[in-house]
Fold:
Amino acid sequence: MPVLDRLTPPPLVAVFDAYGTLFDVHSAVARHAAALGGAAGPFSEAWRAKQLEYTWVRSLAGRYRDFEAVTEDALDAAFALHPAVDPGLRGRLLEAYRVLDPYPEVPEVLGRIRGRGIRTAILSNGTAAMLSDAVAAAGLAAQFDGVLSVDGLGVYKPDPRVYATVLEAFGTARRETLFVSSNRWDVAGAAAFGLACVWVNRSGRPDEYGDLPPLATVATLDDLA
Structure:
């Protein structure tokens, strides 16, 4: 039974994290895998890990840099960690990151959710320009009632002020607001704030936040609706 059939009360809005949930963050490197050779996988993992680390450190330190700058900084760190990778790929990798591939089930699942009369939105660390490019490249612009960025707040998830922007944008109560993310730390932050959460655990990772559980865990978005 799809998760949406089991939720009480049913959500009025379904809000999705973008990077790693709707869009494959490793697809940028995958497009240039031939040029990176055997370093492609570790390089992509390092880029993503440093990107997340930098958002957390900058939020805690009160030294915000927008997600585009953080993504560039993280890429430079990945190059430093993998000196055999050609730094001439930098521009092409950054361009690819702006138009990441959506996971294959995304368009159909969003359509099914909207067919239930549930509004849909994105809540992301990405800048408005990055999100606009990604959504447009994937042909998903008509599938969202809102695309919300942390940029106006100057702080990253999992700060509770980020999740509060959804309630302000849609006028919903916390338990009427479904939040969906593949990032377990993001789900923990949203659960602590009081949103109804679903964790998309694509890689079968163990649960690290047992005291801040999701309402449901799914392997792909297909299990949502």
